[in-house]
Predict the structure of Membrane-associated oxidoreductase.
Amino acid sequence: MELELTAPERAVWQAFPRRALVDLGDAEDRVVRAGVIRALLLGAVPAEPGELAALMLVGAEIAGRLDLSYAEIPYPVRLSRCDFTDRIELVGARTREIDLAGSRLPGIWADKAVVEGNLRLAEVRSGPLHLVAARIEGALVLDEAHLVGAPAVEARLLSVGHDIRGEGLRCDGEVRLDNADVRGSVRLLRARLDNPQGRALAAVDITVGGVFNCCEGFTARGRINLSFADVGSQVCFERASLSSVAESTLACRQLRTTELVLSTSEPIDGEVDLRHARLGVLRDDPGTWPAKLRLDGLTYDTIQSPATAAHRLNWLARNRDGYSAQAYEQLAAMYRRRGEEDAGRAVLLRGQRHRRTGQSRPGRLWGYLQDVTVGYGYRPALAATWLVALLLLGTAVFAVAQPVPLDPARPLHFRAPIYTLDLLLPLVDLHQEAAFEPVGATAWVAYGLIACGWILVTTIAAGTTRVLRRG
């Protein structure tokens, strides 16, 4: 076979057994047939004594399909800055480290492959990358790569021993990482994922040991789905740009992570779904909140944000699913843990007002009464204000038009404030209401005070019960 080799192929053939580098970047003849490379990697030439064999080729044009499916390749492979006329087939193969940095190729099919080192695809220009159920014991490096396909990356069930690094990565088509297991981190700083009519990034049920970093210039045109993901450290979209023509832009349903950062560079275009996510820290910015959120079941230990409690109430009001008692109680509990009792009460009060909008007419009426009298139990001073106002009103009226004694034979000195108080407090007997009877129009004032007293008592009781039950 050696006699049939071209000059560049002979150089590669002779360099292989001693791990020598062949650079054809400036050569007139750069063509190396894929069959020659395949023969070398399948053991056509043994390593020289005392040397380690390896394929080290730069700047070549690889003609034909390089098919190494199900092969056992015990050699490191470097085919950097090469132009491939056809895709690479590594389905079910087992190999050492592979370096294709800077190469151009129609695609890579490596489903169920095992790479005992790094898979370096930095700065490649490639068609679809298939890594379904593959295992990479090192890192998957995609820095500054440009991948095109439908999907651009198909890596469901991928296992990576270290990081997936895609800083500056560009994908025209979906990136699929569903059910992947990444022991290190996923780093997509400055990456651009374009699939505006569908999903830009799907990582449902992914497990990441470190961070899932989509910060610092990360751009996604299309939906992102991180539902059911488990990320050990942080999911970050700080200074990222997220948009989608679909209603839902970012799905983090049942996401589990220590910290979620949603301080994007601009308001998120579309809906963010955080239902039943479990977060340690939520970091966001009210200036970049989406118009719609889904918050039912979301739990967090604390929120770090420039948003005030008033801003945060507006955040809850964006919940697409309407009133959620859990969402209000979760936020109030967070404020109470921080010692901000007033903010916690304000949140619970707003929650009752939100709940009232979905009630029947009698329920809404009862709600209004509780609101204006005692603030649903969260504004007890309001009840005292009403009591004082009614006491002053009754005192003024009955001081001018005194009621008449019911038993002249047993005269009792009339005191307008005590009489008014006796009317207002239905469960207290101060011996004034039973001893005197209002006359003329003042009778209606007395009846009104009695009614107001019962309303105050019942609303105070209802509000107190609600507060004690939540406390």
